[in-house]
């Protein structure tokens, strides 16, 4: 985790503030370590693409069924999956319906 923290800091010029383990599992020890390193644990409420295995239609449905305040998890590391196409359909439709997309700190994403 510390190596990733250092790498992200070097790449972006600022340290990360959020951490999510690849398995999405935390125990008390992991939470303590995350906090000792200056980050905050962050989970998700919607698994948009089932680990980049879902079809574009399923991704679209998962994203569009998110509740206000949801944290949506998706994977960009499988470019041939349905993730991009599903989001490309869902986001404009949701924005047209008045949704705003924000970072966990509340900054609006445009």
From TrEMBL:
<protein>
    <recommendedName>
        <fullName>NodB homology domain-containing protein</fullName>
    </recommendedName>
</protein>
<dbReference type="InterPro" id="IPR011330">
    <property type="entry name" value="Glyco_hydro/deAcase_b/a-brl"/>
</dbReference>
<dbReference type="InterPro" id="IPR050248">
    <property type="entry name" value="Polysacc_deacetylase_ArnD"/>
</dbReference>
<dbReference type="GO" id="GO:0005975">
    <property type="term" value="P:carbohydrate metabolic process"/>
</dbReference>
